User: Fold this.
Amino acid sequence: MNKLRSFVKNEMETLKNKRDYRRFRDRYKHTKRVLEWARRIHAVEGGDFTVIEAAVWFHDIGWEDGVPHALVSARIAEEYLTNNYFCTEEICNEETRNKIINAVKMHSYKELPGDDMDIETRVLIDADNLDELGATLVIMDSITDYINHPEESTYRNVYKRIYKYYSKLSGKDNEFKTNEGLRLYKDRMEFLKSFLDNLEFELGLDMETEKMKIEKDFKSAIN
Assistant:
């Protein structure tokens, strides 16, 4: 996979000029973390890890305005996998190639039931869902709040941001397609709940009042 990994890294370098880029949310580093989540899920759920690994490397490689990135990424994957210069026998036989392309194409369709998906696609979807969900979400929201509002960023505002996304991410059981992915999701959400409870206590917040304000602000932003 070394040749594929290098190809993906080079392609993602070009994306920095096409989409909003922040170093702490680098797409290549995101892909590497997704691969680690995929390893954890695969260890329990099984599947062809050659397919899973290749699909992970490809899943965020493409970007075009107005086109779902999963479709663009799948197109790039297909071009790569049919190019004899890049491709190796390991990932380029027809059955393996088709599984990789399908997993990349389907990975953003989290609302669809997993019954008709092969295990490799389900592992990719869950692994992608799990990144930036637990402790990394706390770090991401803390940094983002300061970047967006450097003069106004406070512990309370960071709390509000984390609580908003915790609420948004709650109740997403149906978006997870494997038992292990669902277990890991629930574990991460329990961590976030514990973190928020501790932060509320340390900041001396009136929890019910704060949550009512946050939910009101959130609904106003949506409307």
Summary: The chain has two domains: 2-112, 135-222. Residues 135-222 form one domain.
